[in-house]
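Researcher: First entry.
Model:
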Amino acid sequence: NEVAYGGLRTKVLGLEHLIAIMLQTARTTDRERLASVLEHVTPDRERLEAILARHGLMGRWEDFKGGHGSA
């Protein structure tokens, strides 16, 4: 995604990429933050799963969902 900021165009990560980063780092704070984020917004499931599969994170996503209900 590109946005204009201060007269400059810059790229911004989408929600699904941010979720992948939180899963990849696997820190406690990121897992807690991810749970909180998912209480308020719904990611594009198809896009998220494509990103997770591409980066080998489907297992972590399944583990996260198993511990936090059906995310």
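Researcher: Second entry.
Model:
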Amino acid sequence: KIGGVEIKESTSEKLLGAWINNDLSWSTHIKKLEDQLNYRLYKLRRIEQGLPRSSLIKVHSRCYFLLYPEI
């Protein structure tokens, strides 16, 4: 208890955008990132099947700019 409030233990928590396990490992964070990236890669592959190459290049360049706006 802290200040009369019951504190529950959990195996992992999200703190400032990063998942940290109760043993201070990054395994949950890495797994969640891996899941997100696999989903996005799946979506990109689905888009790739229906678009001409010129449109794919435009999509790629716009996505790259969103990731690295300082370039």
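Model: Note on the second entry: The chain has a mean pLDDT of 81.
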